[in-house]
Amino acid sequence: MDINQPNSSSRFSGKQSKPYKGKIKLKNLKDQVIVITGASSGIGLVTARMAAAKGAKVVAAARNEEALQQLVEELKEQGHEAVWVKADVGREEDVQRIAETAISKFGTFDTWVNNAGVSIFGKAMEVSIDDMKRMFDTNFWSQVYGSRIAVNHFKERGVPGALINVGSVFGDRGVVVQSTYSAAKFAVHGWTENLRMELEKEKAPVSVTLIHPGRIDTPYNEHARSYLEKQPAHVGMIYPPEAVAEAILFTAEHPKRDMYVGFQAKWGAIVGGLAPRLTDKAMELTMFRTQQSERPSRSVEDNALYEAGYGMHERGTHVGWIRSGSWYVKAAKHPVLTAAAIAGVGSLLWNAAAKSKD
């Protein structure tokens, strides 16, 4: 059996709590129970391992039962506490079961990470409506289900918790060839922003964070449904999944509105807003060729859109410069020190320029 049987009291009524007074303070990771969807590979797998290493109790959810069992056994052998839940997050009842399992096993949960996702590579007019709907179930509706369940839990218990939704650079700026994925992430971004404002207005004990990853080295391309002749892949500068996990786990302890993973993510959001037509042309020029490799695409059936993809792989099969981390994430974690460092460098340059004029 994949979960401990929850009792009926683990259902959430959505009862309103009293307004939370004061600044939201989150628990240290070592004292937390963290729920992670899409935990069988890529960002979710790395986040689960890193969270456990920091002392958190992990609730790992995904469709790949074998991979989940392997992950939890690995964590337990290392002395960590963890439980797995086989769940299709596109189904609300499955997402509810994740929460019930966390409460049945650990009594509560403190951070909920909506990470599960899958992509489709194909032109907007070629992707079938059925494929589009299925992706929205996984990429958008799963985050709505998880958000509502997590928020109700945090409000009912009256103790602050963190809701972390994983978006994308393509949720800030549209991209060719991944129109459905981009549209779903735009929806996630809009949902997260609106939910955050409403919760802030009512002073709910919930920290809501949106993660904006750039192009990340995960099996995302191998799990995608492809309409292309060539295999989908990131070509160019790519960031490691550890950088996204670092951002997620930082915001599990520190309330933060947004975290951009990689300068390309922040740059895409800024430039796409300030110069949309110029960005259109740049996308048209570069993004058709930098989203596919030179090898033939995997078969039409070989993808994770409708069934679980292979698990326990952190990295993908991309082509390009894979960074060791994200300096943008590290700077966001220490804004005061970063500002001081920038000011110091600016002062040195100013003084150097002044001396050169003497």
Radius of gyration: 21 Å
Oligomer: single chain
Poorly predicted ranges (pLDDT <50, ≥5 residues)? Answer: 1-10, 338-353
Please name the fourth-level CATH homologous superfamily: NAD(P)-binding Rossmann-like Domain
For this structure, the CATH topology is Rossmann fold
Distance between the termini: 79 Å
Per CATH, the architecture is 3-Layer(aba) Sandwich
Question: How are strands sequenced across the largest beta sheet?
Answer: 3-2-1-4-6-7-11
User: What is the top-level CATH class?
Assistant: Alpha Beta
How many distinct beta strands? Answer: 13
Major sheet characteristics: 7 strands, parallel
Ordered list of secondary-structure elements with their pairings:
Elements: E1 33-37, H1 42-53, E2 57-62, H2 65-77, E3 82-86, H3 92-106, E4 111-114, E5 120-121, H4 129-157, E6 161-166, H5 179-201, E7 206-213, H6 220-223, E8 225-226, E9 230-232, E10 235-238, H7 241-253, E11 258-261, H8 263-274, H9 276-286, E12 292-296, E13 319-322, H10 327-333, H11 335-357
Helix pairs in contact: 1-7, 3-4, 4-5, 8-9
Key phrases:
Rossmann fold, 13 strands, KR_dom, 358 residues, globular, seven-stranded parallel β-sheet, NAD(P)-bd_dom_sf
What does this structure look like?
There is one protein chain. The protein has 358 residues and is an alpha/beta fold. It has one domain (8-325): NAD(P)-binding Rossmann-like Domain (Rossmann fold). It contains eleven helices and 13 strands. It has helices at 42-53, 65-77, 92-106, 129-157, 179-201, 220-223, 241-253, 263-274, 276-286, 327-333, 335-357, and strands spanning 33-37, 57-62, 82-86, 111-114, 120-121, 161-166, 206-213, 225-226, 230-232, 235-238, 258-261, 292-296, 319-322. The strands form four sheets. The chain has a seven-stranded parallel beta sheet, sandwiched between helices. A two-stranded parallel ribbon has the order 5-8. It has a two-stranded antiparallel ribbon with strand order 9-12. The radius of gyration is 21 Å and the shape is globular. It starts with 32 loop residues before the first strand and ends with a helix.
